[in-house]
Every structure is written in structure tokens, then in C-alpha cells.
Amino acid sequence: MSKTLPQAKPGILDIQAYVPGKSKAPNPAIVPVKMSSNENALGCSPAALAAFQDAGGRLSRYPDSTNADLRAAIANHYRLEPERLVFGCGSDEIFALLNQVYLEPGDNIVMGQFGFAAYAIGARACGGEVRYADEPKLTTHVDNLLALVDERTKLVFFANPSNPTGTILSDEEVRRLHAGLPGNVILVIDGAYCEFSRAPGFSDGIDLARTADNVVVTRTFSKLHGLAALRVGWAYAPEPVVAALDRIRLPFNVVLPGQDAAIAALADQDFQDRSLALVEQWRPWLTQQLGGMGLDVIPSEANFVLVGFPKAPDARSAGAAEAYLADRGWIVRGVKNYGLPDHLRITIGLEPHNRAVIEALSNFMKAKP
To answer: Is the pTM of this model over 0.90?
Structure first.
């Protein structure tokens, strides 16, 4: 009998696993405030919470595999064709499904150098190559993306607004990117943070996707709607793409409480308005306060800000600032794994949290030479 042990297929163990935002302080006696994962500081809609709790009486039942009620709610809310919707356990699963359906070993995806890690993880798991386009000024660059597209490119991924930078592409630039792609290459627009942008010329991409044969727009209930724990994502895509993804999508991938809570969240406009108002009030304030310390704050259209610090070994480096805040119970996100070792990402929080983080960082900057 052979003693050969099971081996993962080539390339799997070379993938850098996804690193989520930290949630614990070094001192276990401190109850931390988590500002590292871009979660909604207001929690979730009371109506969504009630729907989730009500679903507790039906936990012995499988969820609706077709997501019929949620499908109808989203289609009605955004005026979309219900047959062009596909659902995932978070939008992350939809990225993985797209890679599985369209990539063969030797094919490639194209994404920005600071793009969301899930795009690359899914591609490499399929034996695909990942091509990173330079992002001058930490912004998605259309010409650099197009320059990397060749006959083996199957998917181009980008987030708008981008994570972890918070920068955006205008609708004009998105359409220029789409126009420059071959018809057999799918443009995937990750709209996880799109509700937070009110910038002139910005679009969530849905209008482009309505008439395009090769555009997929993804959305999530994790950010604006505050349902991160329930993992509800969806995409609007051409019918042939939806049909292909549904062939391999797990049959019960969106849990019953998640479907019910998402329907209720979508209908609670008051909670959405309050969530947006919080970000619109405190994002410019944080930007101003951090800039006043001499830090480089990247203009953000999301519910977070990306902040540049002096390069290590300067005592005021991003790593030192992250540790200083964590010691005091303020958890922010280091983004070294995104190739940004000199930056921290800070989620917009409640007023006392925003003020406390600014005070702590001010003391940190003053204390260091």
C-alpha cells in the first residue's frame, strides 16, 4: 500500500490566504472598538433584525434556493429583470463562481494592483494567472488595465469605489474601459461601497450593465445595510452568465434568515438614510483632522478613509500607529497585505469613536520625534 499523502493541486498552497480585519485588542481586559472591517457603525435596520429573529422559528427548513422573494424585492427596488439576478454567500462567492465558470488553467484575470484580494484568490484556485495593473495615485487606471488584456484574458475586476483605497472611476471612464475590452472578456464591477458615493459623474454601473453582454455588477448587504454576519450578495448580469453561474452555485447558499433580513433591510429607507448621513458627516471631518496632523489622507467615496504615514523605520510609521491604537482598544486595518505597508484603513464610526481615534492619533504623532 502506498504511503503517499494527499496533496493539494499545484498552486493552491502558493495562494496567500485572505486576511480579515482584526477584532481583538492585545490587552484582553480592554473591550475593543472595531474600525477595521468597514462595518456599519449603526448596526443594522431594526426591521432586518426583527425579520432575522422571526426566522428563528423556521430553522428546520431549507431556504428557498431560487431566492424568489429576495429576487423580487431587489428587482422591484432597482427596476431590474429578476431573471438576470444571481445570489451568493456574500459577493465574494460570486467572484469565485465567475472564476470557476470562465477560467481554465493558463487563462488570466486583470485587476488593479491594490484590488480586493478575493478576485485573485479565486483566479489562482482555478489555475489562472493574475495580472496587476499599476494604480497611480491609488486609483484604478483604465489604460493600464487595458494594456494587460490579451487573448487569454477572461475577466477584468475592479471595485467602484475601490477597496482599500476609497477612490472611484467616473461613469465616463468605466464606459471607456468597457469599450476597450473584447466582447468575450467580462467586466466585473464590484459595487460593495457604491451607495456611499455622491460624487458628480459617478455611477453604480447598473445602467451600463442593462444593455451590455459582458458586464457583471455585484452588490452586497454587508456594508450599507449592516448584515455582514449573514453574507448576502447578489449580481446583475447577462442571462447567459447567470445561467452558467447557477449551474455550479450551491443550492442553498443564501441562508433563510439572511434572505428575510435582506428583504426587510432593503425596504428600510430610513436606516439607509441615517447610515449615509453618518458617513457624509464624519468622512470629511476625519479627512480634515488627519490631514491637519500632516498625514496623507486619500480622497474617499466609501465608508472608510485610507491614511498614509511616514515610512518605517520612522517611529510614526503605520505599523507603530496601528499598535498604539490597538493598545488603547481602537482596532484599525493595516493594509500591508495589499501592498500598502505605510497606510492604515479606518472605518467611519460613531461620533465618540471618531473623536477618540483622532485624539489618540494626535497624541501618537506628538509623542514621536
So the answer is: yes
